[in-house]
Recover the amino acids of this structure.
């Protein structure tokens, strides 16, 4: 028996009140985002990109949805780069190559050689 499933095999699923209206759902949840924030998670303010990293700490640099627009991004020094979301606009091979070249550049210029580490 799977965890949380009654022995009869029936599960009751509540349909979200906004499931038939995606625009209204986006507006509602965009305004009420804290509704989904677990109580043990605390929001933090970003620190300036050039803030020195304290000794013994690991700095994660998180970016997302660059959509082939990596030119001009001020990347902070960091140990680990996390990129989530779309990194191309159309998924073209030339966009993938451009992104890969950019990753190589930031890994050599910033993440691997932090003068404040």
């Amino acid at each position: 028996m799977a965890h949380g499933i009654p022995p009869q095999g029936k599960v009751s699923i509540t349909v979200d009140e906004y499931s038939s209206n995606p625009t209204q759902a986006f507006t509602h949840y965009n305004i009420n985002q804290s509704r989904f924030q677990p109580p043990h998670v605390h929001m933090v303010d970003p620190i300036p990109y050039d803030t020195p990293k304290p000794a013994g700490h690991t700095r994660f640099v998180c970016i997302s949805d660059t959509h082939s627009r990596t030119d001009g991004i001020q990347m902070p020094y960091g140990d680990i780069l996390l990129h989530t979301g779309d990194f191309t606009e159309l998924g073209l091979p030339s966009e993938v190559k451009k992104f890969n070249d950019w990753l190589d550049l930031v890994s050599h210029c910033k993440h691997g050689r932090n003068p404040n580490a």
